[in-house]
Amino acid sequence: MTIYYVNSATGSDRNGGTGQNSAFATLSKVESLTLKPGDSVLLAKGSVFNEQFDIKYSGTESAPIKIGSYGTGAAPVIHSGGDGIHSLYASNIVIENLKISNTGGAAIYGGDVTNWTVRNVEIAKSGMSENAGAVTFRSSKNVTVEDSKISDVKGDGFWIEKVSGVKLLNNTVTSANGSTADAMQLNDSSNILIKGNHLDQTHAVSPKGGIALVRATDAVVADNVLTGGGFGISAPGGKNVAIHGNDISGYHGYSWSFAVGLGDQGSARDYDISGNHIHDGAWGVAVSGATGSSYSLTGIKVHDNVFDDLTQAALKVDRPASGSFYNNTIETGVKATSISPAIVDAHTFSVSNNQTVANVETALASTETKAAATTEAAVDPAVVAVHDNLKIFTDTGEAHRGNLLENDSSDNDTLALRRFGDEAVGKHGLTLTGDYGSIHVDREGNYAYTLDETKLPDDHSGHVSESFSYRIDDGTSHHSDADTLTVFIHMDGLLS
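^ thats the sequence. predicted structure below, dont judge the formating
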């Protein structure tokens, strides 16, 4: 098991590469080696490599080949006119603690690979040709991507195709900008877990959206925050799909825009859509499909969700389907259902025990309490952060106030706000300027958001939103968690 060091500034390809003071200079030198199971390739922090890195050899399950970093300073960066990291047929690979940017193709591409883990990798401006996902895996098995950040890319944030065993955990995707780009697209894949991700397509100018889950088998999409785009989650065809506990909002701009939609690219069987907060968009759950399609839509359960601030109905069913819509909470002013008369007459999609409320906050608090109790029983986390929303309907020039910590929890009953955006929160607090206003926060979680109407679109109609990430801990820094504050600005009601 050998550790190879690579330093673009001080290394030399004439060196042996096995010590920090005898580092290689290029990735191509590493490619000339025969890497063995358990070997590591560490790139010096502060280094910049203008070349594609091809991984040709495999590790084993107990001794994977690792690609990482060493030293202090900024993460090492890979630029390339092709892919950033590229591999065919290699197995048991770990890639961590790197940055990949300005690539013509994918930042990371794996084809026919097995047992890959990508963690804490930052990706920006990949896929400049718009033909590649930032992270692309095809015809592979057991792929995990976690705690990574993808921003301002020209293709899909993730493109996963024909992969068995997919885990996408706690990643952030901001603005997948291509004309056909989604934050995440998974085609014809199975055994999928998409959990804890924050996907923000607010500034992606495209009819595309958050997650496209096409013909999936055995998939769980849980506890994600999805904002903006033409849709939230499109699951057009598949079986045994669970969509639980997500916060989906800000999807709009098209008459068909939906939070969760299914039925237009294959038969859909046994979907459980529950515990989601669906708001500030057009349609809620759309059980639909292409005109003239003969797909079978069966066993669709939509229950225990909260719907508010929708311009269309919470549920749309306009194709033959069987299922149920029950125990949902719907804010006053939102239409509960839009079901075609033929389906109503056929009695195949039941509607029962839904409630209409003037204010959804009580229902949300109950949902979060139940979710926290379930999570605590399962893993007993020391600190739990819960997504926050601020909705602005009118503005008098005064700050809009709230507290980020009031719905969060810790085992020792102590919470502190440590980071907001990408900045540390000092003893005097922190002020950041956003897209539509400025916000001040303090360590106790108090915030004050002041809207700047001069930054709003000229037509002052519809709504816009922006998001701020934050991190909390229990006062000891031993346990922490992170989430997001999303500010929704309903321009129709603003004073001007």
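The domain at 382-493 is CATH 2.60.40.60 (Immunoglobulin-like).
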